[in-house]
Amino acid sequence: MKLLTHLISVRQRPLLRAFGCRYFAASTEEYNKRNYANNISEYNTVIGSLTAQRRPYLLKDVYDDMMLDGVQPTRDTFSSLIVGTMKGSRLQDAFFFREQMKAMGLVPDVALYNFLISTCGKCKKSDQAIRILDEMKKFEVKPNGQTYVCLLNACAADGRLDRVYAIVRDMTAAGAGLNKFCYAGLITAHMNKTPLADDTADKIIEFVERSKGWSSVEASTASAENVMMAVTEEELYNLPTADFANRRGGFLNKQLTEYHVALHACADLKNVEAMEAILEMLRKDGKSPDVYIMMQTTRCYLHSGDLDRGLKAFDDYLTSGKLPAMELYATVIEGAMLGYTPRGMQVAQDMLVSMNSRNYFLNNKVGSDLLLVAAGEKTGGYTIANYIWDLMRARNITPALPAVEAYYNGLKDREIPEDDPRLLLVSRIYDNQRLRFGRQ
Predict the structure, then answer these.
(1) What is the DSSP annotation of 242-307?
(2) How far apart are CA 161 and CA 150, in angstroms?
(3) For residue 214, what pLDDT band results from cuts at 50, 70 and 90?
(4) I want to staple 336 with a disulfide (CB 3.0 to 4.6 A). Which of 15, 95, 112, 348 is the partner?
(5) Predicted confidence band of residue 34 (pLDDT cuts 50, 70, 90)
(6) How many Cβ atoms sit within 10 Å of the Cβ of residue 419?
């Protein structure tokens, strides 16, 4: 009876809506057809699939179903669950799985503790990250070099410059050299410190220069545990390049990590002078910009209000014979839309047309981000927002809820008949998404 009551109470959970509810009153054949996993191997496959799809909000439901089925999770299962929560920045779920793991007599190993520290960093909870290190010592789990780099970057994400420098002092006192991820963390810490210091740009340049002698100890090759879990170091340390770490075709030169983080920071600061100084350092090092560096270069120019130099940087890159990428086009489009000037909006439209004609297509994330910006246009014909929407729908992609909501509100603010086909379609999709995500 307890099991049946629990089943009734969870029938409307997201996972069961996604995979199909369990009906124990049905025939064995029907049950097997609707039940998405029956043993630990199948459950591990489901967990891996949800993590790959970036649907971490369903992982706890999978675990609940596993318990209902009487399937005993293994250490690998908990590892996969915690990695999934890390990738989804779901700190409470990560702590839940840690406690469940310990309740079953399984103490997390150093790799799992590193994932937990990384999750704290993604959620800007450096206090929790410090507590995890203390817990490791309590359970006699020896931290490794990667643990301290995770901790450094977790504190950096929270803007705790004091803690970052303390970790650096401890590392150097122990004879451990700083690697490129440590210097990336130092840059991030200065960027996230509140209030922002006047010498932040100078510090960024200084750390790029100092990073040229970074230690090869604890080198940047991923550990076996990370490879097994498909976690890149860029993601583990919460770097801005995390989403691009597995891209090929010269998109991301992993030897330029400190340059990536520094130029991303310069773009956020809208500091063209510092950005150009770092590019000159790159040139003197005999290195060529990759696509990510070009994204940050054009973003810095555009966000500082220099549309002409942003376009020139983009054109020079194309004329050099190097292949662009959809994200590089999107960077120019987003930057051109800032301020919603007539010229900027025309540039954005031309870029969209050029991108599409060269078979570079928007994905869900980038398309949603661009639609969210374009939907903020208060005057004009709403041409860019409509075009982005049409490009995504032509590929059967539904934008994220915030973008759909902004686009819907923008359409309603214009003099459009209530029976307009576009408005009706957007309204229907918006209503469906609100129901799906529980918003009224």
Answers:
(1) GGGTT--TTS--GGGHHHHHHHHHHHHHT-HHHHHHHHHHHHHTT----HHHHHHHHHHHHHTT-H
(2) 15
(3) low
(4) 348
(5) low
(6) 7
